[in-house]
Design goal:
350 residues; alpha/beta; Rossmann fold; six-stranded parallel β-sheet; 14 helices
């Protein structure tokens, strides 16, 4: 008889970002071997970073629903994401306690971001609640081998599992020819993604074209669209085959984030052989390698400008394109991801 899993977290299409997309991939793969029930956390990007009574009420409603479902079904596993904010951390603890008090199942916790240390050290409440969460956790999933070292004071090494991000849709496209003028940004329009540094660099650059796609956050659409010009094109959300087509056709993807885990859009670019200009933050260096030539400093317009010029002058773009495509296949493919995920939940797949 198949084991039962209860998942709690954000999923597309209601919420579309790297974590929700990764959640969907993992749920789809687990559902092939387990009985999976879902409590989907729904929120609005327009409420990004807001804390209000309605959100607090929803937290208790979710915890109550979780407890009720577990009493009825007695799940073997509760699978959820550790939200790295003080409010999110408290929410995670409440959900875990609700599950543990209503059955005998085990908690599998997934950390998708690369800034755990920053969060943990920021406030004593973060440290206290984190320790309580980890005390109730059976297995911890992290994004990279180096990241796993951060958690050895909390977990025995055998309870920490590395699961790199992957993609639900994979394409094998012919080798691409790479030019010098077509640049692409795909992510939510928030300052932490480095969008304003990016816009400043591309203003009045007659020989470069920047095309941008993403969701608007905190009613910032008017401000973001004010950067529309002959050189910068501002578009809304993009997904599916249209998104892959844009990434494949671009000469270069730019993601100058201040912090990241393993960005899905970088994986998509790697799969398609599109060169990336990005910051060496979070776990990006483990995705692209220490010797990758196009890292720039976060918060630094001048360094971003230099990195763009370095890309323009680079003479062996096709070789680099093929190398990052192979790196995706060898380290981040869906087949590799599936094997690792199912092993964490107790299923060996050949």
């Amino acid at each position: 008889m198949a084991k039962k899993i209860l998942f709690f977290g954000e999923l597309p299409p209601n919420i579309v970002h790297g974590i929700s997309v990764s959640n969907q991939l993992n749920i789809d793969l687990l559902a092939e071997y387990f009985n999976v029930d879902i409590i989907e956390e729904k929120s609005d990007l327009q409420e990004h970073m807001k804390r209000n009574g309605a959100k607090l009420k929803n937290v208790f409603l979710y915890a109550t629903k979780l407890m009720t479902l577990n009493k009825l079904n007695l799940y073997d596993y509760f699978y959820t994401v550790f939200s790295l904010s003080t409010f999110g951390c408290l929410k995670t603890l409440l959900n875990i306690l609700s599950f543990r008090l209503s059955g005998k199942g085990k908690v599998i916790l997934h950390i998708h971001r690369g800034d755990f240390k920053v969060f943990y050290q920021a406030h004593f409440i973060n440290r206290l609640v984190t320790k309580l969460i980890f005390h109730c956790t059976y297995k911890l999933i992290v994004l990279s081998q180096n990241q796993s070292n951060e958690f050895q004071e909390f977990f025995h090494r055998g309870k920490i599992f590395v699961l790199e991000n992957s993609l639900n849709q994979e394409y094998s496209l012919k080798e691409k020819k790479i030019g010098k003028k077509s640049f692409l940004y795909i992510s939510n329009y928030i300052k932490e993604k480095g969008v304003f540094e990016l816009f400043d660099v591309f203003q009045n650059q007659h020989e470069r074209q920047l095309e941008c796609f993403g969701s608007f956050v905190n009613n910032n659409e008017k401000k973001i669209r004010s950067y529309q010009s002959d050189f910068i094109t501002i578009n809304g959300f993009i997904n599916g085959e249209e998104k892959y087509k844009k990434i494949y056709e671009a000469d270069c993807l730019i993601l100058p984030s201040w912090n990241e885990g393993q960005p899905m859009v970088i994986l998509e670019a790697m799969m398609l052989g599109t060169i990336i200009i990005t910051t060496n933050v979070g776990l990006i260096v483990e995705m692209l390698g220490e010797d990758y030539p196009f890292y720039c400093e976060p918060h630094n317009r001048e360094d971003l400008e230099k990195c763009i010029q370095k890309f323009i002058d680079y003479t062996d773009k096709e070789t680099l394109s093929e190398n990052i495509r192979k790196r995706y296949q060898n380290n981040f493919s869906k087949a590799i991801h599936k094997q690792k995920l199912l092993k964490i939940f107790g299923e060996d797949v050949q």
